[in-house]
Write a structure and sequence with these properties.
This protein is of the alpha/beta class and 249 residues long. The protein has a domain at 5-12 and 59-190 and 216-246: Rossmann fold, CATH 3.40.50. Helices cover 24% and strands 30% of the residues. The protein has 6 helices and 13 strands. The protein has helices at 16-27, 60-68, 82-89, 101-110, 144-153, 215-225, and strands spanning 5-6, 33-38, 44-47, 72-76, 93-98, 115-118, 128-133, 158-169, 193-200, 203-204, 208-211, 227-234, 239-246. The strands form 2 sheets. It has an 8-stranded mixed sheet, sandwiched between helices. Strands 2, 3, 9, 10 and 11 form a 5-stranded antiparallel sheet that branches. Helix 1 packs parallel to helix 4 and helix 5 (144-153) crosses helix 6. 37% of the residues are buried. GO terms for molecular function: methyltransferase activity.
Length: 249
């Protein structure tokens, strides 16, 4: 029997996203939001009901990502499990994984058949054909160095010819001045490396690093790590979807 827990999960008193997901599932209160803070912009809100959407309510880029999934699929950072649910309804063999035990419990209650609790970096179970990481799920690598490390580690999760399917964004537009120039310190760290923290009611999470990587930079890192990259879709504000396939030659 496959282990259902790998490595550590978030303490529930440090898990605002999980608390929000669990609270909405129990209360169905459409006004619930998780507050998001960062070191570079004003606070924002994530409406929790958004995380429970059906496939018919998903944006095009997410549906295209689901279309590209094949074989045994691992939905990394699955949250409330909506993408896993959509794949499951399509008849796909999908396993959902999240570091939040509250999110994992909610996914099971929603009817996701295969759920793993834990950290993707600690995973050492059966391999997959597709690793799906949506809503900028690749951001969990934190930094460009983290991206390089993850792309190498992901090879141990994938079968021959396996793929990573994920979206990200080039956020350079956030640094654009009125005259069209960009206010970026070229001596500082990569501009897509952001630090966030979240709150849901009285639950406050720790700060964490999150990465938004531009497509040209991702191309370089994918090639170095031995992947063939395919640009599947480009949306507004440089939001793009890719498939990275293992180069087995």
């Amino acid at each position: 029997m496959t282990k259902s827990v790998f490595g550590h999960t978030l303490p529930q008193d440090k898990d605002p996203m999980g608390a929000g997901i669990s609270s909405f599932f129990e209360s169905k209160n459409d006004d619930l939001c998780v507050k998001v803070f960062s070191d570079f912009s004003e606070p924002d809100d994530i409406p929790v009901p958004l995380l429970f959407r059906e496939e018919a309510d998903m944006p095009e880029i997410e549906v295209l990502a689901l279309d590209r999934c094949k074989g045994k699929i691992l939905d990394v950072g699955a949250g409330a499990g909506s993408h896993a649910m959509a794949l499951q309804k399509r008849g796909q063999d999908v396993t959902a994984m999240d570091i939040s035990s509250l999110a994992v419990e909610t996914m099971r209650k929603r009817g996701v058949n295969k759920v793993i609790s834990g950290n993707i970096y600690d995973y050492d179970g059966p391999k997959f054909d597709t690793l799906l990481m949506l809503m900028n799920g690749i951001g969990l690598v934190g930094t460009l160095n983290g991206l390089a490390d993850f792309l190498l580690k992901a090879k141990s999760f994938l079968n021959k010819g396996g793929q990573l399917v994920f979206d990200s964004s080039d956020i350079i537009h956030l640094f654009e001045d009125e005259d069209g120039s960009y206010l970026i310190d070229l001596t500082a760290e990569y501009y897509g490396q952001i630090q966030y923290w979240m709150e849901f009611k009285e639950v406050k999470g720790d700060k964490f690093d999150w990465l938004y990587v531009s497509y040209p930079v991702l191309e370089e890192y994918a090639a170095t790590a031995g992947y063939n990259i395919e640009l599947i879709h480009v949306g507004e504000l440089n939001h793009y979807l890719v498939s990275l396939t293992l180069n087995d030659h």
